[in-house]
Amino acid sequence: MFPDMHAGDRYAPSAVPEGAQRTPPRPGPAHRRSGHTAHEDSQRHPAARRAWAATAWTAAAAALFVLFLRVSLTKTVSSDAANNALQAWDMLHGHLLLHGWIIGDATYYTFDLPMIAFVESFLGLHTIAVHVAVALIYLTLTSLAVVIAVTASSGTARAVRAAVTVAVLSAPLLIISDRWITLGFPDHTGTVVFLLVSCLLIDRAPAWRLTAPLLCVILCAGQIGDVTVRYVTVPAIVVVCAYRALARRKLVTCDGVNLIAAAASVPLALVVRAVLLHAGAYLMVSPKTRIAPIAEWGHNWALAWHNIRLLFGAQAAPAQPAGSAIIFGYACMLVAAAGIVGTLLRWRTAGRAEQVLLGAIVVNIGVYAFSTLPGNNSPHDIVAVLPAGAILGARTLVPTRIEGRLRALAASAVAMAAALLPVSVVATQPPAVPQWAALTLWLQSQGLRYGLGGYWDGSSVTLLSGNQVKVRSVELKDGQVTLSPWETNTLWFDPAHEYASFVIVGVDKNDLSQKAEAFFGKPIRTHHIDSWKVLIYNKNLLTQLKPPALPPTS
């Protein structure tokens, strides 16, 4: 009954008369205080302990989801996210190949779009589905980062490591101009999931017989959705596996096999993409994979530093008041920097996940700085640095076990406050009001159901109306109006099946300009709604559109 006590100590001879039956005393309060601890009780009831731990982690994940969703609601859903929602809607209704679509240079076909489709199956086609989906995507990324960060730790150290990771991942949420990086719309942020899953697989089960084939499939799927996986995740895994195999002076090891699997994912992805194209799948704009001229490399490194600060919430837009959020962002940058330095110092003894994450940071920043990608506002192209830095920082700064109750309580309190307090304050901000709300309501009230507009007005109105008002994106080029060859479906513009009777012109914008009236002719009516002008016709405008000048597609 009490395995921590020796049988000879339970019943002293002086306390039990000779010949009397020796029965164990009833465990009263004094007896329970005589040496039993919560740790010992948890050892006796491992199932209960696991249940409590699972409940606590689940509750924490649910709380994070609510916070992420609430923060996401402070940003409006633009046409970029609306187009992803429309693509997911098509997939949900059986158009799995997205035939007719011309998508941008990253399709998010294998993770973000299925996630949005899953949410839409419950909530329908609406902006709230996008908000829920991006919150779930970031929660998935955060959960995977936490799982890697707490590896080999125990007790309070697990909670502290998790809190440090969450704190760093929450940093860009504190500045409204940086929020779009993580919770604005599907972007390269979701792609990091393929990096983290690969790290977990080769770190936790490097020699499992299914690890290599699974790794190859995961990396192949990632490359189908985003070529970033090919240029960041695959090289990081290949280099680390090669190093570990050479360090053991034995190529036929689990690392050698995983190296081959990672390398094989590249030609496999090319073959899968070719098969999809042959079957009539979507087209996509060719990614920018060119190397920048040497003369631009110095400037690119300056832009890289600028965008790293944006990524960690350590810099805001010029007119954006940030205050203490900037300080918090720089603190999170220091955590990541400590993680990078610490991993370098213990490189020989570091785990596979730590080595791959450090490699991903180096490769991501290097590929970015030497390419034509850098711009004044392109932190999404190096977004893998944020979760990788958070994980390395947590594993470097927090030991595997925190000794002493006071130290454990203090570390937990500080880490939990840093993780939850800032993002909780941000979550109290009012939800954003879509700028297209008045325009959408007016179009619905007038019975206008199919029309044309600029890129930033088209799919935004379509999604906001729940697909009741369909506005298709067009652009004016060389005096001609043509469908936009970016994030659009060519099947929308078939005059034999659709009838477009109006054009939305942004009065204060250059999306379509006043020359649209000169091209389509004089409308029968013109209405001004906020900063838009709606030109209404009694003819099918689709018959006047010109074929698009397609950019290089693949």
Sequence-ordered SSE layout with sheet pairings:
Layout: H1 7-10, H2 29-32, H3 38-44, H4 46-72, H5 79-92, E1 101-103, H6 112-123, H7 127-149, H8 156-170, H9 180-183, H10 188-204, H11 211-225, H12 228-247, H13 254-278, E2 283-284, H14 297-311, H15 324-345, H16 352-369, H17 385-397, H18 405-426, H19 437-445, E3 450-453, H20 455-464, E4 470-477, E5 480-483, E6 488-489, E7 502-506, H21 515-520, E8 525-529, E9 532-536
Parallel strand pairs: 1-2, 3-4, 3-7
Antiparallel strand pairs: 1-6, 4-5, 7-9, 8-9
Helix pairs in contact: 4-7, 4-18, 5-6, 5-20, 6-7, 7-8, 7-10, 7-17, 8-17, 8-18, 10-11, 10-12, 10-16, 11-13, 12-13, 12-16, 15-17, 16-17
Structure commentary:
The protein has 554 residues and is of the alpha/beta class. The chain has 2 domains: 366 residues, no CATH class; 108 residues, no CATH class. Helices cover 55% and strands 7% of the residues. The strands form 2 sheets. A 6-stranded mixed β-sheet has the order 5-4-3-7-9-8. The chain is globular and about 80 Å long. The N terminus is likely disordered.
* End-to-end separation: 70 Å
Count the helices. How many? 21
Radius of gyration: 28 Å
Helical proportion? 40-55%
Order of helices and strands: HHHHHEHHHHHHHHEHHHHHHEHEEEEHEE
Number of strands: 9
Approximate strand percentage: 5-15%
Q: How many distinct domains?
A: 2
Mean pLDDT: 89
User: Which structural class do you get from the secondary structure elements?
Assistant: alpha/beta
For this entry, give a set of tags.
554 residues, alpha/beta, 2 domains, 6-stranded mixed sheet, 3-stranded mixed sheet, 21 helices, 9 strands, globular, disordered N terminus
